[in-house]
Design goal:
Length: about 525
């Protein structure tokens, strides 16, 4: 007796399916260029077959260092179609860090955007990793490099027919570390598919959805909106560089339904002088990621956008929560609850589960949880907490609490918590006070050494352009509103903060510069 197979439907399968059943629907838009599902399927097939002809085998790693472009998307999904593992690298990293990540991943091929000319020397520094023919330049002919379009022109446009299992590796995303070698976070085909499914449902996406990608494709946060729309056969619009005018133009011109932005992008968009005159009726869902919204900005978003709005808290490792628009005024300061059967708990220093309302480390269990840290079983072991059933939860390194309704409140990074006179001080509590001052645009609170108390809070402030307040006056104003143990010892005005690609402030760099 024969039985029907129960196949695993991979993302490459979905691309092929949409090319067959909705071939003329637009999959990608950038500027005036529009690429249909049929065209995208053929182009990704050519990338995959080119890699296979070079000798790439299933499970081999392939790096790419590219800015947002349709070619970037072709390379990502072409690598996957070949059965290889995507290693997206950040152009914001130093050449030395990029070289370390290529070496650490053992990548055999590197795709390099021609506009990132300063990185061409990096490829010459890792001959022990890259194949002889493993240097591919996208958009420029360069000696010693294969040119992307020439390579594709010589490649077969047919499906390479690589089979996938759920636990096959899909991507290695390197953390935004600034010293040493960042950690490679490994996701499988199953966890990428589950990320798409678990967000597509609450975001209400379908084949008619049109999403604007405002952030780089090499960041995992971008995939939180791109992947659900892409997997359901919708359209993704790529911005090569975010600016508020272009974003608002795209919403109106393309009748965009969805987008994901970081807090600084929301702030800038609302401040655009033409914002009130724009027709944004097509927007159905907006999502904020990257860092927790302060209460003032959250209120401004709710007042200025009428569509559904989500705030996501999460890690590239695959743990996260979401807060819906209707919950935001009821649960100010919360980042919501887990999606679709996932779980969040709080554990104390003894690694026992904390009671409701108690503060401890956030641990999470999710359908999209990473496989582990690449080639670092020691770090993977350190990150595991086991529940009563023996399930593996990720220890996030974030400090938080759960209220009686199961809503999560993130208080600080474990490494960023300030301990002054034996009292734990959470920077977010202080920051929430500072941002209510009308002349404060953004604030970040860090720890500085203190002879008596061990550590003391210092507030680094980006003032509004029209600000007249002095550092001293602002410190006195804030300290009058803070608890005695929370009072800052110093306020310093700065022009900007160091950030990762999603705009999240890198407090480690701030501590290095200002915490001495």
């Amino acid at each position: 007796m024969k039985n029907l197979q129960t196949p695993f439907i991979s993302i490459p399968d979905m691309i092929s399916g949409y090319a067959k059943w909705q071939p003329n629907q637009v999959a990608w838009v950038m500027g005036e260029r529009r690429v249909t599902w049929r065209e995208f399927n053929e182009r990704t097939n050519r990338v995959a077959n080119a890699l296979l002809s070079l000798g790439i085998e299933k499970g081999d790693r392939v790096s790419l260092l590219m800015l947002n472009s349709i070619e970037n998307a072709e390379v990502i999904f072409g690598i996957v179609k070949a059965g290889a593992v995507v290693v997206p690298l950040s152009p914001m990293a130093s050449p030395l860090a990029v070289e370390r990540m290529i070496r650490d991943s053992g990548s055999k091929v590197l795709f390099l955007d021609a506009c990132l000319e300063g990185f061409f020397e990096v490829a010459g520094g890792v001959p022990d990793s890259l194949m002889d023919a493993g240097r591919i330049s996208v958009g420029h002919e360069k000696e010693g490099w294969s040119e992307y379009e020439n390579l594709l022109a010589e490649s077969d446009p047919k499906n390479p027919l690589v089979e996938f299992e759920p636990e096959d590796l899909f991507v290695i995303v390197y953390s935004s570390g600034t010293t040493g070698t960042p950690k490679g976070i490994v996701h499988t085909h199953r966890t990428r598919v589950m990320l798409g499914y678990s967000l597509a449902i609450p975001f209400r996406v379908n084949e008619s959805s049109v999403s604007i990608a405002t952030t780089p494709l090499f960041t995992n946060g971008t995939w939180a909106m791109m992947l659900p729309v892409f997997m359901t056969g919708g359209t993704v619009i790529l911005m090569n560089k975010f600016d508020t005018g272009s974003f608002l133009d795209l919403v109106e011109k393309e009748k965009a339904t969805h987008s994901l932005m970081v807090p600084t992008q929301f702030h800038a968009t609302i401040a655009n002088p033409t914002f009130k005159q724009r027709n944004l009726e097509s927007l159905q869902v907006l999502v904020s990621v990257g860092s927790t919204l302060n209460l003032e900005l959250r209120k401004a978003i709710l007042e200025n956008f009428e569509c559904e709005f989500f705030e996501l808290y999460g890690l590239t490792e695959g743990v996260g929560t979401g807060l819906l628009r209707r919950e935001m005024l009821e649960k100010p300061g919360s980042v919501g609850r887990p999606w679709m059967g996932n779980d969040i708990r709080i554990v104390g220093p003894d690694l026992k589960e904390a009671e409701t309302g108690e503060i401890g480390e956030i641990v999470g269990y999710a359908s999209g949880l990473m496989k582990g840290y690449y080639n670092r079983p020691d770090l993977t072991d350190e990150a595991i907490w086991l529940d009563e059933r023996g399930r593996t939860y990720l220890m996030t390194g974030d400090i938080g609490r759960l209220d009686e309704d199961g809503y999560l409140y993130v208080l600080d990074r474990k490494k960023d918590m300030i301990v002054s006179g034996g009292v734990n001080i959470y920077a977010c509590d202080i920051e929430e006070v500072f941002v209510t001052h009308p002349e404060v645009k953004e604030v970040s609170v860090i720890a500085a050494p203190h002879e008596k108390w061990g550590e003391t809070p210092v507030a680094l402030v980006i003032p509004e352009e029209s600000a007249n307040v002095t550092e001293q006056a602002l410190m006195e104003w804030a300290n009058a509103r803070l608890g005695k143990f929370q009072r800052v010892s110093q306020v310093r005005f700065v022009n900007d903060f160091p950030r990762n690609a999603l705009g999240k402030v890198l407090k480690r760099e701030l501590r290095d510069e200002f915490g001495g």
